[in-house]
């Protein structure tokens, strides 16, 4: 089994975060440097004035710059120390603390107490959004980060709690006392409540009929209203997809995402992090559901998009995370294409990147041996989500680590699937070179008896024909066949050459050239 | 006196169907007993709801101490019956490994493996050994036969009688009867094979007659042609 300890940390995570014993570093939570004072005062003002552009600048740039300059390995000043600069504004303080914890998680390692406090802060923040009247207008990037970080901290908490072996008595006491913190029901119900209360599903539905604007304004409200609940609700659907994938519930995850039409641009594509998270989990869930063609199609699109746009994100705090997910999705694409060789669906640039990264491994994955198996294991372990066990441990029994359990189960079941399919690449190789072949002859070539060959051919058919969301059978096969008595007839689906389009383009081009030539006046 | 009184009361106290209950409370531990009852109801009434069953497995995953392995086994048998859909795997993804180690689950996993890899002979042999698990769920045999016919129809235009017999586990006179019914109702045709007995012609589909596959790539949309109208004129 491959070593599974990849970090799935949010951007900027230091490789080895120093412990959060901040006193040693001379951290005074009450000391507010002038630049921080100016930061909170301005940010507060821009929020009150609903100046989304300025809020976005301060949030994306100033916060990062200040963190880099002043708080590289200490937390930001405590919320109490800055509150009086912002009229003790309740909501602003909640937002400030949310950023405060996010920075702490990214740069230091949070203590259990801090994890619990951060949970409380999310509860208060979401309660205000759900029940209070919030009239702010916040940048999509920020709202996405909130949902993203909320799910990340939940996942991080589950991983932390599952490492029971070296828990101190004090930690165990805290875990027992605050057993509601990061409780899986609480997490799911917050996300669900945001989806429901925001009416986002209905809004997207009405938008299709032209009765509502959401996508066209990127979710912003230009009529003096607030975008916060609506957009949080929207991103919560992506959050639910992610949580369900972490739990191994792929079917439900995809169901949560259904209101978003991912074949089109949408608010989810307006923030690169959200775009990648959505497609990564969507593709992964489809891979686990054996809908390889769907996964390949979406991975191909996003990988091409990242390839073309990544230069614009180089300075973004998300850059590292973008690159990492990019690599993981290439690994998932390699898996999909090895199980379902539909290379025609992959664009040239993506394909050459893929060959460069995994070309050699993909050749070995076609074989039926332990080494091929080991590569599937390696790629899956590298690229899968960081699965969690959502239930609390029993504190009475001997304390054991169970943080790898969920991952091991998903890996095992995935490899089981691979094993069921591993004879298929062999049969495909033979079918490729024949248009008709008798069962007896093929059985001979494959060194199996005829009844076994029949089962292999049926497995091929079953595994290449997935059931889609509506229960319809869809073919994932690049190479198809049928059997008539004991003769196999092979049908390779060749891509229909689109001469029509080609000629149309050439006709238009020629007309242009003739027009240009006509315009030239020979003196 | 019971019946007439109890019936309407039940109607009133259960204003929601279980499906609605799941839709409204996907993350509510209180609906667990309803979902368990619903599994039993699916078994007795030969109905099926993947969403409700996944919801229950999710609640078990959140609170393992409330898990009933008997209910889990029923869910898994129902999921097998839903093949070719991947429901069985979907359920396994949610069931802790240590639970899957139990004998009855190991058996079900083996059964699923045989179905996934088209090994119907082994499947029926194994199922015969585990009657207590599968016979508890009415309609099991028919559901698997339907799956076998599905895979055969993907694969064969004409299938030899013995291959069909093995896949659906019906032989001799019962098979004749079965075939008669299929010929009358499902468009099957019986043919004589070259000397070696019967061939069954299965209904045409785009999967066993790939030439029927709709080829969308062939046409050219009208607005593309319209673009060259000015030039042509």
Automatic annotation (TrEMBL), chain A:
UniProt cross-references to PANTHER family, sorted A to Z: EUKARYOTIC TRANSLATION INITIATION FACTOR 3, EUKARYOTIC TRANSLATION INITIATION FACTOR 3 SUBUNIT L
Similarity field: Belongs to the eIF-3 subunit L family.
Transmembrane segments: none
Lineage, highest ranks first: Eukaryota, Viridiplantae, Streptophyta, Embryophyta, Tracheophyta
GO biological process assignments: formation of cytoplasmic translation initiation complex
Protein known as: Eukaryotic translation initiation factor 3 subunit L
Domain (PCI): residue spans on this chain: 298-497
Subunit structure: Component of the eukaryotic translation initiation factor 3 (eIF-3) complex.
Keyword Cytoplasm appears in the UniProt entry: yes
Pfam families from the UniProt entry: Paf67
Locations listed in the record: Cytoplasm
GO molecular function: translation initiation factor activity
Entry GO terms, CC: eukaryotic 43S preinitiation complex; eukaryotic 48S preinitiation complex; eukaryotic translation initiation factor 3 complex
Entry annotated with the keyword Cytoplasm: yes
Predominant location: cytoplasm
Keywords associated with the record: Cytoplasm, Initiation factor, Protein biosynthesis
Function: Component of the eukaryotic translation initiation factor 3 (eIF-3) complex, which is involved in protein synthesis of a specialized repertoire of mRNAs and, together with other initiation factors, stimulates binding of mRNA and methionyl-tRNAi to the 40S ribosome. The eIF-3 complex specifically targets and initiates translation of a subset of mRNAs involved in cell proliferation.
Entry-linked PROSITE patterns: PCI (PS50250)
UniProtKB/TrEMBL annotation, chain B:
GO annotation, cellular component aspect: eukaryotic 43S preinitiation complex; eukaryotic 48S preinitiation complex; eukaryotic translation initiation factor 3 complex
The keyword Cytoplasm is assigned to this record: yes
Gene3D superfamilies: ARM repeat, domain 1, Winged helix-like DNA-binding domain superfamily/Winged helix DNA-binding domain
GO molecular function annotations of the record: ribosome binding; RNA binding; translation initiation factor activity
Pfam families the record matches: CSN8_PSD8_EIF3K
Compartments in which it is found: Cytoplasm
Main location: cytoplasm
Coiled coil regions, renumbered to chain: none
GO BP: any one term: formation of cytoplasmic translation initiation complex
Record domain PCI: where: 48-207
UniProt KW keywords: Cytoplasm, Initiation factor, Protein biosynthesis
KW Chloroplast (keyword) present: no
Complex formation: Component of the eukaryotic translation initiation factor 3 (eIF-3) complex.
Job description of the protein: Component of the eukaryotic translation initiation factor 3 (eIF-3) complex, which is involved in protein synthesis of a specialized repertoire of mRNAs and, together with other initiation factors, stimulates binding of mRNA and methionyl-tRNAi to the 40S ribosome. The eIF-3 complex specifically targets and initiates translation of a subset of mRNAs involved in cell proliferation.
Family label: Belongs to the eIF-3 subunit K family.
Record's protein name: Eukaryotic translation initiation factor 3 subunit K
Organism: Quercus rubra (Northern red oak)
């Amino acid at each position: 089994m491959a070593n599974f300890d990849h970090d799935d940390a949010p951007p900027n995570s230091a490789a080895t975060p120093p412990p959060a014993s901040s006193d040693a570093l001379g951290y005074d939570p009450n000391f507010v440097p002038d630049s921080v004072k100016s930061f909170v005062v301005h940010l507060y003002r821009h929020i009150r004035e609903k100046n989304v552009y300025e809020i976005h600048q301060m949030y994306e740039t100033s916060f990062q710059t200040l963190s880099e300059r002043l708080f590289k390995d200490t937390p930001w000043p405590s919320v109490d120390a800055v509150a009086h600069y912002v009229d003790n504004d309740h909501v602003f303080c909640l937002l400030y603390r949310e950023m405060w914890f996010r920075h702490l998680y990214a740069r230091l390692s949070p203590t259990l107490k801090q994890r619990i406090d951060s949970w409380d802060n999310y509860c208060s923040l979401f309660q205000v959004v759900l029940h209070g009247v919030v009239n702010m207008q916040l940048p999509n990037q920020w709202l996405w980060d909130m949902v993203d970080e909320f799910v990340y901290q939940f996942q991080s908490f589950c991983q932390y709690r599952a490492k029971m072996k070296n828990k101190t008595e004090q930690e165990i006491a805290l875990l027992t006392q605050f057993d509601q913190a990061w409780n899986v029901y609480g997490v799911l119900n917050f996300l669900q409540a945001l989806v429901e209360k925001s009416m986002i599903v209905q809004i997207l539905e009405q938008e299709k009929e032209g009765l509502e604007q959401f996508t066209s304004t990127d979710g912003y409200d230009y009529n003096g209203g607030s975008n916060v609940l609506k957009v949080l609700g929207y991103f919560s659907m992506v959050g639910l997809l992610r949580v369900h994938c972490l739990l191994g519930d792929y079917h439900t995850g995809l169901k949560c995402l259904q209101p978003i039409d991912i074949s089109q641009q949408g608010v989810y594509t307006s923030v690169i992090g959200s775009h990648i998270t959505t497609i990564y989990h969507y593709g992964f869930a489809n891979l686990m559901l054996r809908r390889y063609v769907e996964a390949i199609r979406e991975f191909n699109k996003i990988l091409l998009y990242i390839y073309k746009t990544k230069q614009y994100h180089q300075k973004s705090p998300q850059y590292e995370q973008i690159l990492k997910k990019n690599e993981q999705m290439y690994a998932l694409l390699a898996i999909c294409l090895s199980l379902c060789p539909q290379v025609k669906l992959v664009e040239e640039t993506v394909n050459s990147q893929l060959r460069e990264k995994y070309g050699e491994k993909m050749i070995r994955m076609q074989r039926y041996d332990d080494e091929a198996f080991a590569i599937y294991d390696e790629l899956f372990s590298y690229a899968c989500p960081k699965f969690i066990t959502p239930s609390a441990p029993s504190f009475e029994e001997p304390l054991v680590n169970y943080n790898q359990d969920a991952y091991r189960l998903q890996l095992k079941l995935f490899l089981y699937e691979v094993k069921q399919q591993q004879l298929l690449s062999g049969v495909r190789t033979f079918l490729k070179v024949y248009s008709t072949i008798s069962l007896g002859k093929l059985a001979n070539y494959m060194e199996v008896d005829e009844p076994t060959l029949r089962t292999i051919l049926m497995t091929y058919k079953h595994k290449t024909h997935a059931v889609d969301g509506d229960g319809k059978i869809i073919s994932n096969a690049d190479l198809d066949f049928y059997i008539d008595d004991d003769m196999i007839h092979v049908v390779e689906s060749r891509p229909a050459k689109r001469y029509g389009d080609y000629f149309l383009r050439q006709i238009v081009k020629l007309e242009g050239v003739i027009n240009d030539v006509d315009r030239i006046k020979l003196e | 006196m019971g019946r007439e009184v109890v019936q309407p009361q039940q109607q009133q106290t259960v204003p929601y169907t279980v499906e609605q209950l799941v839709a409204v409370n996907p993350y509510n531990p209180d609906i667990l007993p309803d979902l368990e009852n619903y599994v039993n109801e699916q078994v007795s009434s030969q109905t099926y709801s993947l969403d409700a069953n996944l919801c229950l497995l999710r609640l078990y995953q959140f609170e393992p101490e409330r898990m009933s392995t008997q209910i889990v086994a029923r869910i898994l048998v129902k999921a097998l019956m839903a093949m070719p859909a991947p429901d069985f795997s979907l359920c396994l993804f949610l069931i802790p490994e240590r639970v899957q180690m139990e004998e009855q689950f190991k058996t079900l996993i083996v059964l699923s493996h045989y179905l996934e890899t088209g090994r119907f002979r082994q499947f029926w042999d194994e199922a015969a050994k585990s009657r207590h698990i599968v016979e508890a769920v009415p309609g099991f045999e028919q559901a698997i036969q339907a799956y076998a016919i599905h895979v055969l129809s993907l694969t064969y235009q004409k299938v030899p009688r013995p291959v069909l017999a093995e896949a659906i586990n019906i032989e001799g006179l019962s098979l004749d009867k079965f075939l008669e019914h299929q010929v009358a109702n499902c468009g099957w045709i019986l043919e004589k094979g070259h000397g070696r007995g019967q061939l069954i012609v299965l209904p045409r589909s785009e999967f066993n007659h790939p030439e029927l596959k709709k080829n969308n790539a062939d046409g050219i949309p009208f607005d593309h042609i319209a673009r060259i109208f000015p030039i042509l004129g």
